[in-house]
Amino acid sequence: GPRLQSACAQSSKLAQQYYLVYQVPIPTAHLVQRVASSGGVRSFGVSLLVCGWNEGRPYLFQSDPSGAYLAWKATAMGKNYVNGKISLEKK
User: What gap in Å lies between CA 3 and CA 75, rounded to an integer?
Assistant: First the structure.
């Protein structure tokens, strides 16, 4: 929906600004921290899964509307997230 699109647009803008200043892609953890702490997801009332690739390895973060964020190796969210997490734990 529109809230998710706004949160994604803000994340994209932050990543572009970082690249213009430092000439390297923004580290995934830094992007998630900036969006979560600036009220980015809080003001939109959405949870986000953000994945990226830094220093030769994948990263996955989940942020929630409170501004909290966690790093995961794998996770699930949404309507059927409990079954998704159970399935991931079995693997």
Answer: 22
Q: Does domain 2-89 have CATH number 3.30.70.100?
A: no
User: How many angstroms separate the CA atoms of 9 and 54, rounded?
Assistant: 21
Percentage with pLDDT > 90 across the chain: 47
Q: Has residue 42 got a pLDDT over 70?
A: no
> Which structure tokens are listed for 4?
């998710």
Residue 27, Cα to own-chain centre: how many angstroms? 12
pLDDT band at 91 (very low <50, low <70, confident <90, very high): confident
Domain ranges of the chain: 2-89
Dist. CA 60–CA 23, nearest whole Å: 23
> What strands, in cross-sheet order, belong to the sheet with 69-72?
48-54, 57-63, 69-72
The predicted model scores a pTM of 0.76
Q: Are strands 48-54 and 69-72 parallel, antiparallel or unpaired?
A: unpaired
